[in-house]
What does this fold into?
Amino acid sequence: MRPTVHDIAAAAGVSLATVDRVLNQRPGVRHVTREKVETAIRDLGYVRDVAAANLAKSRVYPLIFILPASDNSFMHGLNAEIRAAIARSTAERTDIRIVEVPAFDPQALVRELEALAAEKPSGIALVATDAPDVRAAVDRLVKDGIPVVTLVSDLTGSLRHHYAGVDNIAAGRTAARLLGRFLGGAKGEIAILAGSMLVRDHRERLEGFAAVMAHEFPALHLLSVLEGRDDPEVAHMLIADALGKNDGIIGIYSLGAGNRGLVRALKEKAVDRTLTVIAHELTAHTRAALLDGTIDAILNQDAGHEVRSAIRVLKAKADGLAVIDAQERIRLDIFLKDNLP
Amino acid sequence: MRPTVHDIAAAAGVSLATVDRVLNQRPGVRHVTREKVETAIRDLGYVRDVAAANLAKSRVYPLIFILPASDNSFMHGLNAEIRAAIARSTAERTDIRIVEVPAFDPQALVRELEALAAEKPSGIALVATDAPDVRAAVDRLVKDGIPVVTLVSDLTGSLRHHYAGVDNIAAGRTAARLLGRFLGGAKGEIAILAGSMLVRDHRERLEGFAAVMAHEFPALHLLSVLEGRDDPEVAHMLIADALGKNDGIIGIYSLGAGNRGLVRALKEKAVDRTLTVIAHELTAHTRAALLDGTIDAILNQDAGHEVRSAIRVLKAKADGLAVIDAQERIRLDIFLKDNLP
DNA sequence: CACTTTTTGATTTACGTACATCAAATTTGG
DNA sequence: CCAAATTTGATGTACGTAAATCAAAAAGTG
It folds into this structure.
């Protein structure tokens, strides 16, 4: 049987009340007594029964998810997964709220973070915009003792407790190798469609992609990045234009959203030529395109896993508990038409 | 606030004791009264607080994992993951035991299943050997009310509650497409190294692989399957021999274990030729081979996820609760040298 | 109707922890 | 050494459920 508070009290030769004072860092315990209790805790290997503690406290974990107000499939999916988590709230003792902030607006994000800090939630998950002010705001939250997890896009150099998202440099590198190998030594040009170079995850994907391309596939020449602002219409225009103007294009890497426009452009302009296309994020559109051969591979991050992982980590941090690292690593999914879920 | 048993008692106009009798299907409740209570439960949307219930019951979940006594990296890894779960036992209220049975021996497995049924555990996870007797034994367990999950290798057609493993047909198909695309239209022969065609997962991988190869890559010719019995020595011998005898081999698909032998053979015999190699299961050996270019891609199933998923599902089934399907889907990991964890 | 059997209610204890209160003991300051 | 302040103990209640006991009420039987 695992030891209880009673066992500690007995072992330390103190009363239950004193053990409670030590465990919950309440005042009114002499230093020597506190040490006696702590020794007993260590000797017996006591670990607080979180379920019982939460029951006694009628504890709920108020969590906040801060998302950019972007109108693309991926963000919609993320939103849906958070709402699914909200539906599980009672069973998981969470109280989750979604807060939307204007996209690509560090100041708005900072203001929101400041405002939320006052609520003293059990934890905050945010899709980070990469800016010094945001980093500083996050660091303040952490120093105030509020667990913070970055979601989808990280904030390196900040004190955030955890990042629930994929390694985007690795994603870019993987895309490059897949594209390079699929093209099997052919010579030609590669078009790159991004959302915006202002977003860290897109920058990182490009960085990884370009590095592997340069190093391992010198026969492939990268055209300058097309910024589609994750908008299907803009993406369509850019890709249609590029394909019309440049016959040398044999591959496309789409590292952002707005792939509906990409697919449409491909169907219009590329019926007569063989293009190898790698895109990010599995949506209804990219899935269909993968199945009909318009896209050759899709790299994906599972929004559901990211949300569930963020919640688990925030709860654990709020309780000062450890997490299972391997369980919280968000993997880069590679989908070919054969292994779609 | 979520409703409690007290609320139900009040709503149904009965006492707490009666509610308890209904909730825990104890006898001594008239049909009409039971219905009144069940109506109240539905109307109020009551869900039992599992944490509180487990606390009151001092419940632990006795779980049993049945594994084949095979001496390969994958099984060692699986074992290690179960032991890691055992280390978390107190926190998760589980009491997990590992039982080893001789590999490829349906009768031994059946005998073990019969013996374990008597213990009435909260759940059983097993690496299934695909045989009618095993299927029947599993069905008996399920009919006795014991939750059963197949692990790594499924038992289709049985009543098992869940399968914690990858879709092996999809894995084979994916391997075929990767190999075919990586070979970029070249003409040649493909060697296939399996463990044993008596194991369902290996059969399924081959089936998927052969289907896509025949349909989409007719320029590639499959040599007859080499059965390495998941043994590095045998694998080494078979591959070295095949490479020595056949100059036309341009690709290899290793769908089982024993890849240490494969890698050694490649380093000895294939320094002067370009081979594209796809293998299963990420181990220290395959990882090194992927990084140094001996292997081009590794397909993997995460043993840690499989074990944790099996435990979650067994606990949920024991409590009659639903699981989050997406969370329990074991994904096929595709590793290139760029996205290794 | 009396009687047995079944059903229901009322109440208590328990699980492991949190938290509050009040009294008693101990330490500290003057 | 006394008073004040601090530290500790003892005790009770609560969280939501399980499980047991015993009494009371209702239903069924002849």
Q: What stands out?
A: Residues 62 and 119 of chain A are 9 Å apart (CA to CA). Chain A touches chain B through 45 residues (CB under 8 Å). The mean pLDDT of chain A is 94.
